[in-house]
């Protein structure tokens, strides 16, 4: 199948998402966000997330097909996220996807959510995914990956404690901003001075590509009682700068260490305007080609799942219907394993 039409489903956390992808082109991407549902709790409530996926998945599937004017019979394969994520949330999308594949008598592809993020910067690239260092920064993960080729991923570094998005969300909460805090800090930081508060950057040099953000969060916690007046924007900007500093410097150091001329950046935090800006400048200065995920495809979506499924289908990687949900599926396992 050179240019398959894929129906893709993503329900690993708090977004119910369905997309249609035709070869490397996006046809339509629909996301039913649960942000309002979880906001009063300051984080995702797994039981509420799966119940909401159950209620939303069928209407969203219908809407996606109607919006695109696609008849179910035209679909070549069905894909759904199989992990990592919340088990009961994953099961909703996986069961829906398998049911559709059975009903339509089409192949089924279980996709690793992290592979979806990792490949998403190459959606619009004519050559598709190429050898590169990928920074995946989201609410649940902070990874540096050497992408040799589709299906061959080597872990270069990861966070030893909080994910970058988790740090954004926790610090936002400390400052009194609503959940999810990443976009709120991004907005507030535009009005702030990033040099006002000197916050720690955890980055031992050399070939250490591990991340750590919990010390930074603790530093903000200890600083807060000493502050008064109109400090929020400066604090948001200073915190954001500390995170971005580490992400940019480690990503470029990893690209250098692995002789990569291309860098890909993806995941919810890659929507951050300061990260995008500084990454663009740093890559240009280093002569490295930067592929940033499209801003509408940074937070969880099904388009990236469909795109990853296309790459796998083109390599003949199809799952049998026994493929199971795995809440802690590692990125290096992309098939049935
Ligand atoms: O990729 P994603 O939707 O979910 C996971 O797979 O975890 O990422 C969500 C994370 C949240 O922590 C959210 O605060 C963060 O991405 N985020 C941002 C921005 N937009 C979303 N962080 C910083 N700046 C943003 N503009
Ligand atoms: Zn994600």
- Helical amount among residues, as a percent range? 40-55%
* CATH superfamily (homologous) name of the largest domain: ATPase, nucleotide binding domain
> Could you describe the largest sheet, including whether it forms a barrel?
5 strands, mixed
**Distance N terminus to C terminus?**
24 Å
The main sheet orders its strands as 3-2-1-4-5
User: What portion of residues belong to β-strands?
Assistant: 15-25%
* CATH topology group of the largest domain: Nucleotidyltransferase, domain 5
What is the mean predicted local confidence, pLDDT?
93
Q: Secondary-structure element sequence?
A: EEEHHEHEHEEEHHHHEHEH
Structural class: alpha/beta
User: How many whole angstroms does the radius of gyration measure?
Assistant: 20 Å
Low-confidence runs of at least 5 consecutive residues = none
Descriptive account of the structure:
With 337 residues, the protein is α/β, with parallel strands linked by helices. The chain has two domains: 5-120 and 297-314, ATPase, nucleotide binding domain (Nucleotidyltransferase, domain 5); 130-293, Nucleotidyltransferase, domain 5. The chain has helices spanning 35-38, 46-68, 87-104, 113-119, 164-175, 181-189, 214-223, 232-257, 273-286, 303-314, and strands spanning 5-10, 15-22, 25-33, 77-83, 108-112, 132-137, 142-149, 152-158, 262-266, 289-292. The strands form two sheets. The protein has a five-stranded mixed beta sheet with strand order 3-2-1-4-5, with helices on both faces. The chain has a five-stranded mixed beta sheet with strand order 8-7-6-9-10, with helices on both faces. Helix 4 (113-119) packs across helix 10 (303-314). Zinc ion (ZN) is lined by residues 113, 117, 138, 267, 300.
